[in-house]
Structure formats: C-alpha cells, structure tokens
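Budget justification aside, the reviewers requested a transparent look at the raw inputs and outputs of the sequence design task funded under Objective 1. We therefore reproduce one unedited record. The lines immediately below are the structure tokens for a 188-residue chain.
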C-alpha cells in the first residue's frame, strides 16, 4: 500500500529554507550513499511527487529537472514547464489547484503502488496532514541554525519515532504521523 511521505532536511532550529528561500546551508552537507535517509534509496520507493510553487521554482532555477516520475505542483499562478528531464526524457509535470484529497487520488493512480513524496514545502506537508493523508516524515537534521525562514512543518502534530541514525553530518529520523496534537483533539 502506498504511503505519503514527507522526505525533508531541516536545520536544528526547524527550518527548511532561510528567509530568502535559499538552501545554500543544506547543499554544503552530504548524506552517505546507502545510509539512513539516503536520497537515491528513498527515490527508488517513490512513484509520484508533489510540491508547492516555491519549491518548484527553486528546483527549476538550480539545475535540470531531475524527476522522471509524475509530479504535481500546487499553484495558483502560471509557471514554466521543464522541457525535459536531466536524461532527456519528457517531464511529466501537472499544475493543480485541486483539493489535496483529489490530488492524492490522482497521485495514487500514477504511482502504481509506490509511495508518494511530498517534496515541500512544509505548509503543503501540513495540508496533507490536515487531510489525514500524511503517513511518515523522513527528517534529516543538519548541524545548522538559521534563526528564521520556512518552518519544516507548521502544524501541531503527534508523531511516533520509528528510527534514528547518523548519516554524515545529519541526524536522520523516521516518524509515523499519529495525527493532530492530543491536546488539540481534546480541546476541539
């Protein structure tokens, strides 16, 4: 059964990008190939991805389109399409303003039993959590603090820690999303 996974790197103080949406702090750190939360190993389990417009624009401006699988971009504005992937294949990018549950259903069909990756940002992952559709978070924490920026997941959620390890400079963890914070459930 497909899972919805938020695979993300963040700073110790909980940011995925600085106030200028830069990831320079992240790009100077590497994960060990084959280690916990390794990108290539993770990507092999994924059948479809979704990201917000800011993440999409960052990806487009920092190299060729790397994803050779169906991609949804949640946006309310017109954005350019990548011409092709880094290997020359046609890029499969779908812009959407649809409700998260509808996008989730479309992604499940396209993924053909593989997992779904919420690439970013944190608010989009939060929208999947709000809909009860976010299953796991794979978080790699870098030894950096930014003091401000884009939060890793701006929601109040209870999580269950499933795994921890070190990968290079990163503390790697895998969490199961249990749902809304218990205190918020009892208050509502």
């Amino acid at each position: 059964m497909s899972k919805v996974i938020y695979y993300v790197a963040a700073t110790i103080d909980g940011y995925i990008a600085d106030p200028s949406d830069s990831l320079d702090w992240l790009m100077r750190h590497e994960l060990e190939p084959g280690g916990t939360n390794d990108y290539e190993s993770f990507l092999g389990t994924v059948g479809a991805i979704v990201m917000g417009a800011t993440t999409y624009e960052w990806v487009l401006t920092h190299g060729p389109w790397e994803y050779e699988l169906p991609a949804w971009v949640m946006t309310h504005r017109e954005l350019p399409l990548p011409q092709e992937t880094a290997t020359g294949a046609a890029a499969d990018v779908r812009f959407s303003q649809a409700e998260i549950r509808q996008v989730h259903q479309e992604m499940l069909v396209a993924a053909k039993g593989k997992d779904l990756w919420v690439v970013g940002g944190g608010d989009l992952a939060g929208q999947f959590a709000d809909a009860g559709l976010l299953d796991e978070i794979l978080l790699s924490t870098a030894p950096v603090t930014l003091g401000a920026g884009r939060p890793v997941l701006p929601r109040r959620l209870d999580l269950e820690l499933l795994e921890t390890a070190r990968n290079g400079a990163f503390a790697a963890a895998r969490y199961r999303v249990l749902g809304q914070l218990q205190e918020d459930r009892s208050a509502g």
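Helices lie at 24-27, 39-43, 53-61, 100-111, 122-130, 182-187. Residues 100-111 form the longest helix (12 residues). Computational costs for records of this kind are itemized in the attached budget.
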